[in-house]
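Why does residue order matter? Because the sequence determines the fold. Keep that principle in mind as you read this record.
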Amino acid sequence: MITILFGFSSCKKDKETFEEKLMAGTELMEVGSKTGKYQFDVLSNKNMLLESDVDWIVLDTSELEKGKRKVIFEVHANQDDERSGLITVRINDEISKQVLVSQESGKVPVFFVSPNGTGDGSSWESPSTFHAAMEKATTGSTIYLMEGTYTPFKTIRNGDSAEESDKTFEINKNISLIGGFSSDASIGAKPNAALYKTILDGRFSSGKQAFHTVTVTAAKEAESQVYIEGLVITGGNATDRSTNISINGLNFSRGQGGGIAIGGSQVHLKAVEIIDNKATADKGTVGFAAGMYAFGSADVIMENSKVNNNTNTGNNGGGVWMHTSNLTAYNSQFNGNTARGTAGGVHGYPNAKIILYNSEVNQNSNTSYGAGLYLREKSTGILVNCLLVGNKSTSKNGGGAVMLYDDCKIDIISSTITGNEIPGPGAGVYRRSKVNNLTIVNSIISGNKQDATSTDVDAYTDNAGIAPTIKSSAIAGQVYSEAGSVVSDLSFNPATMLSAQYVPMGVNNPALMHGLNGSSLTTLGQTYNPVLESQINADKNGNERMDTIMGALIK
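Structure:
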């Protein structure tokens, strides 16, 4: 899309020399095949008249007052070939601007792809390359990928063709990508991602690496999403954070999201592994978020996926960073990530919403706040049946497994947080700066190692007076009743009451008797908006909660 900077001369002119001006913010609008609304900017010192030359482009208005305005229009669904129409903005008979609206085909082809494909992609016998299939795909298309290793060879839209690291697997349409097909696949074959590894690798033969191995730039559309299944995403290097590439009005920083960068899209990841990516200062300013970076009100769903073993060598964000975006993950892992700064595992900052069901945030490390999960600046989180173990920070500032900073909120339900280690306070959960609200239900937060003057759930002085809500849980050595009070004659010892697999065990263990069963948890889930999902009835491994057992695992 071509962007024009608006600006008029500040020189004063006589009325006799008044110059009528009109500018448009783009010359081309590429729109999806489905019904949807779009807009572009115009600027004029005279009132404007608008018209379209085709009936499938419907303008919100035919007139706009002078000034900087938005031309808003709707396109009707296209069920045929690609088509185009013109929107004309006019201030008089001589001065007008035309914007070409190009709508993709409504036909939904399927493509077959192999690492070295040379065909047209119409079958497994004639597979094409990934990039060739993307060029032909339309909203709703499916691309099937044969096993093997793929390397990007196309420059990101609006990127620098002379910069090899700007090459990426760009997903600019709401389509499905499904990997895990064998090299001898035939029509009707079923994918097996574990057996037939399908790898998108950002490492080039020159020794350079892609800034983002995968970049998702698809605009949100009603009833559409980007669906990715059965792929390994690796080899990216987020660096040169001070430079951006503008796509769809969003700035994609080269230094954010080494494995995958998602800007303003709706994305569903299933059986996807984002592993062994990094963020460095190899080129310019050191990057953020070695694994995945989502921004611009993106919505991401993860299912049976992994963001593991990603490394930030000099800044914040090892695994995942959600920036003004939402993440809901099921049965997923965020393990073994490293940051030289904050947020080793999962980061929500700012205004992020992170919900994890039956997931792990384990063995992450960093040098500052939030080695496991770090929520900052009006971000919220919900953990259901989650395991947070072995996260470590070298910082004395506080915050090991979970850190809340600056007006955040988290609800920890039926989860186990143990074995996390920091030299500062609150290796389990720590709160600092402004009001941070904490709710803990049916959980075990004990056996973490922190400064001797602190405990597993702690707060800085500015949050010390903000009491957390704790019910039916074991916190350090104390046991809380369903009503939220400490039960004076009960105590919890993680050394003897948690197995090596983090399952409550032993005689007279309050975690086996004073928790909540599935029925009570379902009732609790109904109090949330939206209602918490049915996973709350069972433990992390899907075992039904018949008894009153605390923590992520009941057996």
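The chain has a mean pLDDT of 94.
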